[in-house]
Write a structure and sequence with these properties.
By secondary structure, this protein is α/β, with parallel strands linked by helices. It is built from seven helices and seven strands. The protein has a single domain (4-208), classed as Rossmann fold (3-Layer(aba) Sandwich). It binds S-adenosylmethionine.
């Protein structure tokens, strides 16, 4: 048996579907800390979330006034996310779409594209496509793990891409983008049994130069 990364890469849709359908529909009900930290000051517009899981970030964005398209490879995750959106009273502000992002990508231009801990493989082309779908004046936010939480189910020797490596992989003309944050940032993470730990997230936040047309 190989590592979970090998298993996931061999069958991304099957891996994530099995993970969600064998777990609980309950979610934390809280947005990711880096999303909250960096997006709260922005004026709301059209947002696209890549790999929305059970929908906590999408629900929070909708509550902040964004019109959200939320994408997942797992239909079960999408069903849980839609139920969470309905419970939060924001279902009318979120369109849920099923995509394997390595194969298909939602139509349109967005004022914010956010991807937190997106596990799609390979992911470079997904993020390159995402950069093309950011409207002028809009933001691209990619959040990755930069360190492993003590309770994480990922491999102990897991390697994490740095924010600079993620930026380089986008192949964008840097003159067309403003670097808002490219680097590691600490946050307090909450574990499944109430434990906490300081972890590092690698954050790539770029703003496309220009004004929304
Ligand atoms: C670690 S979870 C992160 C979920 C959520 N963004 C969060 O921050 O809690 C990774 C997510 O990426 C989704 N995913 C993995 N591969 C994908 C692909 N090829 N296309 C779309 N979503 C994918 C998984 O289903 C899973 O929900």
């Amino acid at each position: 048996m190989g590592s979970w990364i090998e298993e996931m890469r061999a069958d991304q849709a099957g891996f994530w579907e099995a993970r969600y359908s064998s777990g609980s529909p309950a979610s934390s009900g809280r947005p990711g800390e880096m999303l909250r930290r960096f997006v709260e000051p922005l004026a709301p517009g059209r947002a696209l979330e890549l790999g929305c899981g059970k929908g906590d970030d999408a629900v929070w964005l909708a509550g902040q006034g964004w019109t959200v398209t939320a994408v997942e490879i797992s239909q079960t995750a999408l069903d849980y996310a839609a139920a969470n959106a309905a419970k939060a009273g924001v279902a009318d502000r979120i369109a849920f779409e099923r995509h394997d992002l390595t194969q298909t990508f939602p139509e349109g231009l967005y004022d914010l594209i956010a991807a937190s801990f997106l596990a799609a493989h390979p992911r470079e082309a997904v993020f390159q496509r995402a950069a093309q779908a950011v409207a002028r004046g809009g933001h691209l936010l990619i959040v990755d793990h930069g360190s492993r939480a003590p309770w994480s189910w990922s491999d102990e020797d897991a390697q994490f891409p740095t924010a600079e490596e993620t930026l380089a992989s986008l192949l964008v003309n840097e003159g067309d983008w403003e670097r808002v944050q490219v680097g590691g940032m600490e946050r307090i993470a909450n574990g499944p049994d109430g434990q906490t730990a300081t972890v590092l997230d690698n954050v790539t936040l770029l703003r496309r130069v220009g004004n929304a047309g």
